[in-house]
Design goal:
Elements lengths: L5 H25 L40 E7 L14 H10 L4 E3 L5 E3 L2 E6 L5 E6 L13 H11 L10 H5 L3 E6 L2 E5 L7 H4 L7 H4 L4 H4 L14 E8 L5 E8 L17 E7 L2 H9 L5 E3 L13 E7 L2 E7 L9 H9 L3 H9 L3 E3 L22 H25 L10 E6 L5 H12 L5 E6 L1 H10 L4 E7 L7 H4 L15 H12 L3 H18 L3 E13 L2 E2 L20 E2 L5
Parallel strand pairs: 1-10, 15-16, 15-17
Antiparallel strand pairs: 2-3, 4-5, 5-7, 6-7, 8-9, 9-10, 11-18, 12-18, 13-17, 13-18, 14-18, 19-20
């Protein structure tokens, strides 16, 4: 039967024999001990560092070891109420901590400009009414579920609720925005009118729809989520400390392992835990810093007794707030440009600020804040020329006398003597000394001014009703270069309390709002600042200085433009334990 295949059968049997011999030889080689290596033995490789938070920390040592400074401890003054980005602006400690837990579609860079964060692409229509945002597809919530357009739509629906406008200035604008999901990672916003600063509104933290589905803005205000937040940020809530279950005294954030699975997030963040201790006042917080219970304090007036500080670094940056002296353009003679020029030139603003604020503020030379991408200082604001001021005031008086003479020829009735003008300030703002000196300087021109210090409620009422001649107010500039709310004539009695009115100013602000190209918009804001100085719409006085004090055991801290105090954490991924023992 196998006669036709005899030679193939022989080859097959031979192959089997060779295979069996090879197998026996390999087994005998494996049973022998391995020969000694001729190279240097390879050392045992230590396990790679886990992404889980490190829990080793010493709270009592004022000179922590290299391992213990992976924990950062900061003191905050106030209380924690809602760790929720939609409410965080109402309470500074909430805003600080929330900024580490949540992320927005966009974020601010060190110049206050918006950059992509959870977005990868932004397309703006030519008319500035449509914004299409492509979302990253590699982001997960801290509970491991994927982030998607559903979360953005839900968050936008909460902000567009009319009740949200009662607590947020942005709420009214969101009511006119239509948010549409185009795909799981593509979303479109339609505006009712062009608003070039719209990406700034997209820096607010996004909420997880899956955790809050069906919750309204009213219900959210009291929701347990506010003290058990789920975000997408680099840190997540680890623990809350309370006293008898009542008030929160401290909380801990831990490095999020989910965040560090994201592309590009594997480097940095050498501080594995962030501990925030809450204090009732600055005195208690400072005492904790001196005794070594915390590593950092922030937001206070600069410390003067630096010699008594533990080894520390002081970081200072102007806050994005402007202290400005406004005039009531509805009252004579402040609607006249020469009068405003004279009042400005009669003040040595840099000296005033240095005398009354020291290192707590620096003099202002623009309606914008240094560090802003549109800031353009003007020499006029630091020009002190009492001779020229008197000349301008005399010329304005002469013109006014001539006008009064013409009016008297038409009307023989007598007028009451002019009462002293009023310069109003808010109590408790450390402005009394500066205001008194300003009034003294203006008396050299022949103006009779009195200073009125009012509580916050009456101060606001006087501003809104226009019952003042001059006032020192603080304008919160933040990140938005759109100052329409402060200086456009349409905002008279609102943000523009003095009813300042200039056609070119109004035109520049309107055009900048609708200009989608940043370079052109910057030119409009530059011209706005030039006209602001030429017309002396008001007198910029000072920028408050934000102070951040940190022990020497932490390095790598840099403060860029601060849209809020929470921006001090912008570069926290670069903070690291110091290589030099404190």
């Amino acid at each position: 039967m196998f006669r036709g295949f005899r030679w193939q059968l022989v080859l097959f049997i031979l192959a089997l024999a060779l295979f069996a011999a090879a197998a026996l030889f390999r087994l005998s080689r494996q049973s022998q001990p391995a020969p000694p290596s001729e190279t240097t033995p390879v050392p045992t490789i230590a396990p790679t560092q886990s992404s889980a938070p490190t829990h080793a920390v010493s709270h009592t040592s004022t000179t922590p070891s290299q391992s213990s400074v992976s924990v950062y401890r900061e003191g905050l003054v106030g209380s924690v109420q809602r760790l929720n980005p939609l409410f965080a602006h109402l309470n500074p400690p909430d805003r600080d901590i929330t900024s580490l837990i949540f992320e927005g579609l966009f974020a601010f860079n060190e110049y206050g400009e918006t950059i992509q964060r959870m977005a990868t692409e932004l397309i703006i229509s030519g008319d500035g009414l449509e914004y299409v945002v492509r979302l990253r597809n590699d982001i997960q919530w801290q509970n491991g579920l994927p982030f998607s357009a559903d979360d953005v739509v839900y968050t936008a629906s909460l902000m567009s609720d009319p009740r949200y406008s009662e607590i947020s200035p942005a709420g009214a604008f969101w009511q006119s925005v239509e948010t549409q999901k185009l795909s799981p990672h593509l979303i479109r916003f339609r505006l009712a009118q062009p608003y070039s600063s719209f990406p700034i509104l997209l820096t607010i933290g996004i909420l997880p729809e899956h955790a809050l589905r069906g919750t309204t803005i009213e219900q959210l205000a009291q929701h347990p989520f506010n003290l058990s937040p789920i975000g997408t940020g680099a840190y997540q809530l680890d623990a809350l400390d309370t006293v008898d279950g009542q008030g929160i005294t401290a909380l801990r954030l831990a490095l999020s392992p989910i965040y560090h699975q994201r592309q590009g997030a594997q480097k940095g963040h050498l501080l594995h835990e962030l501990h925030f201790q809450l204090y009732a006042d600055t005195t208690a917080a400072l005492e904790a810093y001196y005794t070594g219970n915390i590593d950092a304090i922030s937001g206070f007036a600069p410390l003067t007794d630096l010699d008594s500080l533990p080894p520390s670094q002081l970081y200072r940056q102007v806050d994005s707030t402007l202290g400005v002296l406004i005039f009531n353009w509805g009252n004579a003679p402040f609607e006249e440009r020469r009068v405003r020029q004279a009042l400005s030139l009669s003040l040595n603003v840099p000296q005033l600020v240095q005398t009354h604020f020291g290192a707590a503020a620096t003099y202002a030379d623009s309606p914008y804040v240094p560090g802003s991408s549109v800031y353009q200082p003007q020499q006029f604001w630091k020009t002190y020329d009492l001779v020229q001021a008197k000349t301008l005031w005399s010329s304005s008086e002469a013109a006014a006398s001539e006008s009064d003479s013409d009016d008297a020829n038409e009307d023989d009735s007598t007028t009451e003597p002019v009462q002293p003008y009023t310069l109003v300030i808010e109590e408790g703002t450390n402005l009394q000394g500066m205001a008194n000196e300003i009034v003294s300087q203006w008396q050299l021109l022949g103006l009779d001014f009195v200073v009125e210090a009012l509580d916050a409620t009456n101060f606001r009422n006087r501003l809104e009703t226009g019952r003042f001649d001059a006032a020192i107010v603080r304008q919160r500039i933040g990140a938005d270069p759109d100052l329409f709310r402060f200086w456009h004539s349409a905002q008279s009695g609102s943000g523009n309390f003095g009813a300042a009115s200039d056609n070119e100013i109004a035109e520049n602000l309107e055009n900048a709002r609708s200009e989608i190209f940043a370079a052109r918009r910057a030119l409009l804001y530059q011209r706005f600042q030039e006209v602001f100085a030429e017309q002396v719409l008001a007198i910029p006085l000072f920028y408050p200085v934000y102070t951040f004090v940190v022990r020497d055991n932490i390095e790598g801290i840099q403060l860029g433009y601060l849209t809020s105090a929470a921006d001090r954490f912008r570069g926290i991924q670069y903070w690291r334990p110091s290589t030099v023992a404190s």
